[in-house]
Design brief:
Outer Surface Protein A, domain 3; about 180 residues; 4-stranded antiparallel sheet; about 35% strand; single chain; alpha+beta
Length: about 180
């Protein structure tokens, strides 16, 4: 019984260069490059225009690593070819974002502004005063940067003010009952 995810081949799109040297895997594409160390017990090989991963044995930890390695490598191939992005929406009177150099300056109703500088490999774009786009090749880092920005002023449940993902739905609460 092999890992259902791990046994699926990873298609290599045109324009992506893949190298496997021992346990080191690297992918290079139009959006950038990334590398990953394949866990022990898992071997990766390029067959035609696909990457195939095989597990050394059928033990539970090896099966788990098999699926994990395949998911990470497939994400890397997609990331260097297409890239990943998350869009954040700023809701609230006076709340806005302004591009400042490489980073973004947020006005979120505090007595001070908050400046966010992106880590290496991540780009931050302000499409308008109320929308910020986080882009990069690494899915995990894009999600983490977006989560850190959202955490600056998480949406509150009464009026929905704050920073939210563009596809996020805020569950609203009823306010105080009037007389």
């Amino acid at each position: 019984m092999a890992s259902h995810i791990g046994k699926l081949p990873i298609a290599i799109p045109a324009g992506v260069e893949v190298k496997i040297e021992g346990q080191n895997f690297s992918a290079k594409g139009a959006k950038g490059s990334d590398s990953y160390v394949v866990p022990e017990g898992i071997t990766a090989a390029v067959e035609g225009n696909e990457i195939v991963l095989t597990a050394a044995d059928d033990l539970r930890p090896t099966r788990a690593k098999h699926g994990l390695a395949r998911s990470i490598m497939a994400g890397m191939v997609k990331g260097v070819h297409d890239g990943y992005s998350k869009t954040l929406e700023i809701v609230g009177t006076g709340y806005r974002a302004v591009a400042k150099g490489q980073g973004i300056e947020f006005f979120l109703g505090y007595s001070h502004t908050i400046t966010v500088n992106p880590p290496e490999g991540i780009t931050l774009k302000v499409t308008d005063a109320n929308h910020v786009v986080v882009e990069g090749t690494d899915k995990q880092v894009v999600g983490q940067v977006a989560a850190n920005i959202r955490k600056l002023r998480a949406p509150e449940p009464y009026k929905g003010k704050g920073i939210k993902y563009s596809d996020e739905r805020i569950l609203r609460k009823a306010g105080k009952a009037g007389k």
